[in-house]
Records
---
Amino acid sequence: MDPLTQGTLGAALPQSFSRQVHTGAAGLLGFLAGMAPDLDVLIRSAEDPLLFLEYHRQFTHSLVFIPLGGAICALVLHGLLGRRRGLAFHQTWLFCTLGYATHALLDACTTYGTMLLWPFSDQRFAWNTISIIDPLLTLPLLLAVVLAWALRKPGIARVGLVWALCYLGFGLYQRDAAVQMGRELALSRGHTAHGLEAKPSFGNVLLWKTVYADGDRYYVDAVRVTWRPKVYPGDSVLKLDLERDMPWLEANSQQALDVERFRWFSNDYVALDPEHPNRVIDIRYSMLPNEIDPLWSIELSPNAGRWDHVEYVMSRDGGPERAAILWQMLTSP
């Protein structure tokens, strides 16, 4: 999730367990600790552009790391904030740990993938119930946190938590409905939908992107569920086959290893970019939910040396035109 949502949820939980006099301190410590796990984005390398993909949402997001993460935050923040607000260290640690604990679970509700069970497993959990940015989740929760601090009423923070849980539950219901619509769409085409997943489009839980495999192709569509259900047929693309798509790629080269790393990160939803013959794309993410156009990809070079890495490419060319199309898909009859 975005840092504001992570911090706000991180603030709401310790506020809910605090006494009135500590509502402000609990919220501030929880807010900072709730954002702290994403400091793992600093683990990156100029030589290896995929290193951050391996470490983002890894050990800092593991469930077993929560007490240690909370302790690290407390060690940093107690002298700066906790002691000055009359807290004992164990209180600072409790508020920081509660805030820290919300982060990974909220991230797992998105589609990116979070290694909750590291180091015992490198499985990436993605429950696909909410977009990484969703104002309808964040703004009411933020209002509850601010009011709880201003009025010194922890009960208001509890109301915010109830709202967050209800909204995430609604996203779960919407996801299952989108999966069912995706199955029906695949059946109408005579397809056997393998690995069908539904993912919320940007900023809402009404319009969903469905992805499934049939034969050697991936199919991407958009469905609007519950409210005026509607299908927006999308594109399809061949699954990545390195022998067919990049016969020049040496099997033991660093670029080939990087493709497998990217395949792991993308949960095997990878294909060759139709517009760039040397790019491997992650088809799970696009600005419009019925498009293949990726938000990120890797680019290989036939002339690269044996130990040269791929190039990581970001493609977030949304613009007002695509935003208008997304809004139309959300609101059209």
Note: Residues 154-188 form the longest helix (35 residues).
---
Amino acid sequence: MTPEYGVRSLADVLPSVLGEQTLLDPARATALLLVDGLGSELLRAHPGDAPFLASMADAGPLTVGFPSSTAISLASLGTGLPPGAHGLLGTSLRLSDDIVMDTLRWAEHGTHGKVDLRKSFPPEVVQPADTVFQRAEAAGIGVTVVSQPKFEGSGLTRAALRGGTFTGTHAFGDLAAAIVTALARPGRQLVYGYHADLDAMGHVYGPGSLQWRLQLRQVDRLVETVVSLLPPDAQLAVTGDHGMVTMDHTFDADTDPVLQAGVRALSGEPRARHAHVAPGAAADVLATWQGVLGDAAWTVSREQAVDEGWFGPLSPHFADRIGGVVAAARGTAGVIRSEAEAFLSRLIGQHGSLTSAEQLVPLLVARRD
């Protein structure tokens, strides 16, 4: 499915707080809790594990954008822009002929995070647009970012979520307390909270596994607790950055010489792969990848992906970050890299593609007036 940029996408949520969109009703104070990996279809499939979430008003579902992965979604959420406009177009992102960057760690891809790229590729240059948090502060709104301490000053935070006051938290207790405390401050307030563990359970054990379901139960109690403590004229919205599927049908681009022919570099992730091709090789690489992947992926040229709106309106500054060939996985397939991405390639749960299971996330809202 093509993301609904500008209508019902993750990028349209926070601009609603500024009155630029209409997904959220006005409130003196708004908190948005992003639960990593909370997909609409997964949530609907397990209502017994999340009865409070199931009882909340759902202004969604929303599409998250392409690729449907954390770094890209956080940039869309934080800037209010689609991926083609903010420029984070893959979990691994090709920035030059020589550099592919891991956007989650802001480090050189494939070096286990040892080569920090924050100086050579400043986040504010890689993603130059102002964030919604910066625009909110300029409008006199208090902004608080509540997340794990390790994310303060990280490359991805600086690129996608810069602005506001950062509050580091360690567990559900101080996450809930920090959100409620920030909402209770006088005047207009915007609070962003982040929870990562549901996504981790899905990656390691599989979406819908017992471990994933028990973590969902904890998230449900967290949300219920925050709602019970909401100050007057405040609201809590809950969403996700992507859904997830179980991947069990793989093609290995690190060991298959056919997939390597004519390809200078690979970026993206297993469910959304960019093949950056040698000059003059685009047509041959496209034909080869279509022949190998077949019905396991939507495999198209860069031009077709852009024309069909996969990335939303594309800034010409970011065109080279898209592969000459783009493969969006279907079903349970993926293009792994067993050598360059050994850990990622072994994970059961994956996301990144255009399927509804990965694209759709809820927008759940509760408020006190």
Note: The two ends are 37 Å apart (CA to CA).
---
Amino acid sequence: MRPILLGVVAAFFFAFTFIFNRAMDLSGGSWIWSASLRYIFMIPFLLIIVFFRGNLRPLFQEMKARPGQWLLWSTVGFGLFYAPLTFAAGYGPGWLIAGTWQITIISGSLLVPFFYETVQTSSGSIAVRGKIPFKGLSMSLIILVGVAMMQMEHMNQLSLQNVLFCVIPILFASFAYPLGNRKMMEVCGGRLDTYQRVLGMTLASMPFWLILVVWELATAAPPTMEQTLQSLLVAVSSGVIATVLFFQATDLVKDDMGKLAAVEATQSLAVPYALLGEIVVLSAPLPAPASLIGMLLVVAGMVLHSYVSRAKEVESVTKKIGEIKR
């Protein structure tokens, strides 16, 4: 229950990403600054936390031992996740971005065969390659229907090109985030805590962000004070608080792919959070009835997906143990 609760609270703070990214776009801010400043601002906060916990040296030792893997998977998990997400904010409201982002639940399930999960047997623990949770995916179709209903209203208002600029980057990011997160959990092997891993990934993704910063400075203007402050808020709420809570939740269930999928599914709650936030902060109008129904389907799909994932995991582990004994 604790991992699920952490995921729910993380979803609340993640919602600030969609709200403020939309606000920065509406005010004319560049998506590159919105993305890069968030991770740049995260560094001092995380450094202070990890330093006072006395865990900086072990982190740097781990990063020094595997610099290539840290650079690769941090860039995937942070850079190739957040840059497309902020780009998409220029082509749809925050609640729509948050809703479409829930495709990551399906993306995460499709990535399961690329990882191993630990199964306890009478002779000890063994690593078994994960299998796609097809029952969970069947429940995920409800999420897809909900996303489609939300996007229908969007398609009626904008050109096909703008819709694609909204959907395709989110689809790309939906694979990058769980892939980078899970790969880094493998690389760390339980030797680092959540704060260390988030700081390490933030530092290792800096080359990617600095390249974007140099490009933006060479081709456009520096960020405004308003965008800088909003990026700072996103860094604290979403980059530090939400990311740490979410990574804590995934760390608790990292060896159980069914429960891991359930924790990732809690991020669907960012959709209603983002909608309420846009109404309050940006005075956004209430979406059309079809979009509201689609939003409810997304959340319902998340709940059903979590339930089926947990039931399927119990059945799968029992079956695997039986096969191993034979």
Note: The mean pLDDT is 83.
---
Amino acid sequence: MRYRLLGPTGLRISELFLGAMGFSDVDESRPILDAYADAGGNVIDTASAYGRSEEIVGALLDGRRDRFVLGSKYTLSRDGGDLNAAGNHRKNLVLSLEQSLRRLRTDYLDVYWVHVWDRHTPVEETMRALDDQVRAGKVLYVGISDAPAWVVARANTLAQWRDWSPFAALQVPYNLLRRDAERELLPMAEALGMTVAVWGPLAGGVLSGKYSRTGGAGAGARLAPESVTEREHAVARAVTEIAGELGATAAQVAIAWTRARSPAVTPIIGARSVEQLREDLGAADLVLPGEAVERLRTAAAFEPGFPADFIAQCDTAPMVYGEAVARVDGRR
């Protein structure tokens, strides 16, 4: 396992995060966390809305909490009958954080994530409230999940102007079948120096090939076989084909592809068993040849749309930048 820095900060993070969303039993989850730690992993991702996950993680980290970069999220409702028990406003932030700290048996979080953009709360309120928790020592760094690029960029600009803690990282869904983040979110994060923690790198298991192999996905499958489209099967077959050529597994290839697309990307891996975790961890050592990256990209046809595709055309257009534009070596 190699390590990176969390966004523009000095915090060292492993190149694969461990998603604890599925943690529901201490005895079942302990060997998974231990195997991840033994491989050099140090980042655990959970949330207030992930059932018993925070409580389980808190129990598992007893006596070794400080060796991990622990992150949790808030926004989602703590009480369906209370409107103020959800959202990104100050009241829910404070109460959610206190609840998470109790469950996780810790007095601070390394990373506190906004779980989803709340249209009803001014971003100024959220950023100031998060900064208050950083100054109080209950949170060290902040991140945001599932939000438009313009919201994140505006939030970080406000933080820069007002000397608040900016978002150091972004969480988004990203995989070969879901490449929407390439339109605005990935370019924004790269420009702002943010880490991009991507969830769902296997697209619910579709890219592992288990839905496309003879005999079906087997027991415990998350998706109904009939819900997997022909396009998804075709991409999964391309992943499996390249995996065979490289002596890797389809899951490793799919995870490695997300990392190959941008140096900002850090996949979040989740596992139901130690064997599955170790397979996914193998993606850290897999470097895809450029030809394989391109084959996978073309197998999963994707159009960025306006304005990205229009601007790309302008980049090389003599009418826009003059006759010598083709000889300009830009920064990217």
Note: The chain has a mean pLDDT of 94.
